[in-house]
Amino acid sequence: MTWCGRSSSTIRHPRIRSLSKNSVTPYLRENQFFSQRLRVARCTELFDDPASLVRSLVHPFTGCQFPGSSVLTITLTPAYRLMRLTIKTPPHYSLHQLIISHGWASLAPFGHNEERNELTYVDRLVSGRVLTYRMLQPRKHVVVEVSSHGSDAERREIRKRLVAMLQIKADFSRFYEIARSEPKLKPAVAAGKGRMLRAPTVFEDLVKTILTTNTTWNGTIRMVAKLVQRWGDPIVASEKIRAFPTPAVLAEVPVEELQKGAGLGYRAPHIQKLSRQISDGDLNLEAFRRSRDDTPALRKQLLAIDGVGPYAAASMLMLLGRYDHLPIDSWALKLVSHEWHDGKPVKPADVERVFERWGEWKGLTYWFWDWKYLYDSMTGE
After folding, report:
1. What is the pLDDT of residues 90-131, one digit of tens each?
2. Distance between CA 123 and CA 139 in Å, rounded?
3. Which terminus of the chain is more exposed, N or C, with fewer CB under 10 A?
4. How much of the chain exceeds pLDDT 70, in percent?
């Protein structure tokens, strides 16, 4: 199946239960990629959906066998292409380095295709409309394919959210300037490291950060995936492809259901309370990104939130563009132990002491340091 010109494919949809044109037309109207040309055929052979179309274009018809071996056959005529946004990037910008900056690309509703070096995301706009983004960097700009066209206001909203997610406007020139003098940071400078992938909302970033505490990374992946699949809004195309749940939705989920249904354990009451505070208007997390408060004041506000300790607060500060605190956990202790103490046990104060000289950039310095332990692990030394 091709994406340009006229094309046809046999496709099936689980929500359509009759073979009438009237039952199908509303689904075509919901998806603005295609005109409403269709035909219905009865046949004995079942056809598979075009895999590439489902993966990259998120087509609204995902597969269903009709009674009596009937297959709904629709002739698709593209009305126009995906909405395509081009975002100019600053010098040294690397989408690849952003994707691998930390684990967010592995957490739903993000997705990452390593072979094509592309990032995907399922987003819910303020209007409640759910769209998918496919992001690539062919040259000195990021190209974003959005799963449907929208109004001018939606287009502006999407661009604003993408700029925040991809940290397009962040300035790392000062970090690069001081990092060039350190051999352990030269690889980071050469590769254009520095930016960290973020969610469109501080709420999503904070929930995910809380779910990284006192668990394995696989545990975090499972918890986030369950939250998205159980309580996120789906795209028109598929009930399985969902955005991150809103504070209003999670505020109404019983703690017991969060514990059992998503496996959040002791974190469940913290997530519910956070969601209620935001939903009720008692906490404006999104204001944290544009806050002019100094870092100690912002850190104090983060620590006042249930479920946020020193590690989570430092991690969130980095996602907010504040790099003067270190997210110290057992992994940080291990890295510093092998780098400077021959594998002997160290304390958080030892980690702080090592990076103190980097001041406002010590968080990034720690994060992108060329660690001896990682090198030895990869080479087997």
Report:
1. 988 999 999 999 999 999 999 998 888 999 999 999 999 999
2. 25
3. C
4. 77
Q: What is the dihedral of CA 26, 29, 31, 35, to 10 degrees?
A: 120
Q: What is the pLDDT of residues 129-150, one digit of tens each?
A: 999 999 999 888 999 999 888 8
Q: What is the pLDDT of residue 28?
A: 41
How far apart (Å, rounded) are the C-alpha atoms in residues 183 and 198?
28
Compute the distance between CA of residue 227 and CA of residue 203 in angstroms, rounded to an integer.
Answer: 13
* Final residue in a domain of this structure, among 298, 322, 346: 322
Evaluate if residue 339 carries a pLDDT over 80: yes
Q: CB 61: neighbour CB atoms within 10 A?
A: 25
Contact 221, 343 (CB under 8 A): no
In a domain? residue 177 = no
SS3 330: helix
- Domain residues for the domain of 42 are 7-76
Q: How far apart are CA 120 and CA 99, in angstroms?
A: 10
pLDDT band of residue 381 (cuts 50, 70, 90) is: low
pLDDT tens digits for 163-192?
A: 999 999 999 999 999 999 999 999 999 999
At 178, which helix (H) or strand (E)? Answer: helix 173-179
φ, ψ of residue 158 in degrees (nearest 5): -60, -45
309 lies in the same domain as 235: yes
Q: What's the total number of domains in the chain?
A: 4
For residues 316 and 359, membership in a common domain is answered with no
Question: Among residues 130, 120, 285, which one has the least CA distance to residue 201?
Answer: 285
- With tokens 């690309």, the residue in question is 105
Instruction: Assess contact for 326 and 314: CB atoms under 8 A.
Output: yes
Say if 182 falls within a structural domain.
no
- Domain assignment present for residue 197? The answer is no
Boundary residue ending a domain (76, 106, 129): 76
**Within-domain flag for 180:** no
Q: Which amino acid is at 111?
A: G
3-state secondary structure of 88: strand
- What distance in Å separates the CA atoms of residue 361 and residue 53, rounded to the nearest whole number? 43
Please count the CA atoms within 13 angstroms of the CA of 267 that sit on its side-chain side.
Answer: 25
Per-residue model confidence (pLDDT) at position 33: 35
pTM: 0.79
Q: What span, in angstroms and rounded, lies between the C-alpha atoms of 334 and 344?
A: 9
Same-domain check for residues 308 and 352: no
